[in-house]
Design goal:
By secondary structure, the chain is an all-alpha fold. It has 4 helices and no strands. Helix content is 72%, strand content 0%. The protein starts with 6 loop residues before the first helix and ends with a helix.
Length: 141
């Protein structure tokens, strides 16, 4: 008899995947020179508000979409052989991305440690909120 995933299990899987994808988007944005503006960087003359808005949306979108699809795939509704293969493929791609991103996103040291910590915490908070929303919509009712 197959076991069905409980609501909390689906919710936890979705939250974890969404947060990890949001942090991966944050790390990749820092690698390409577009980091989250923190503190007084927003008000400087050379600040790029469009790039800052795009990175906020990229982190939020990665958290929401990642948690939503992970929540849908974690459910056991209409489980068939093709769906198991799709789950395995997405799981392997997700794992490969989480292994590759830290090696690609190696950053030079940031001169200001408090701004670096604040930027990382903001990305984590944004990813957590959007992952919660995505997993809430994907969780079985």
């Amino acid at each position: 008899m197959p076991q069905t995933a409980t609501r909390m299990t689906v919710f936890a899987i979705a939250m974890t995947c969404g947060i990890l994808l949001a942090l991966s988007a944050h790390m990749l944005s820092g690698r390409f020179g577009v980091g989250l503006p923190v503190g007084l960087d927003i008000f400087q003359a050379n600040a790029n508000p469009i790039a800052a808005a795009l990175i906020w949306w990229a982190i939020a979108g990665a958290g929401f979409v990642g948690s939503f699809f992970a929540g849908l795939l974690a459910q056991d509704a209409a489980d068939g052989p093709d769906r198991r293969g799709l789950r395995m493929l997405i799981g392997v791609l997700f794992f490969a991305m989480l292994v590759i991103v830290p090696h690609v996103a190696v950053l030079p040291p940031i001169p200001s440690l408090p701004e670096s910590i604040a930027s990382n915490l903001l990305a984590f908070a944004l990813g957590t909120v959007t992952a919660f929303c995505g997993s809430w919509f994907a969780a079985p009712r």
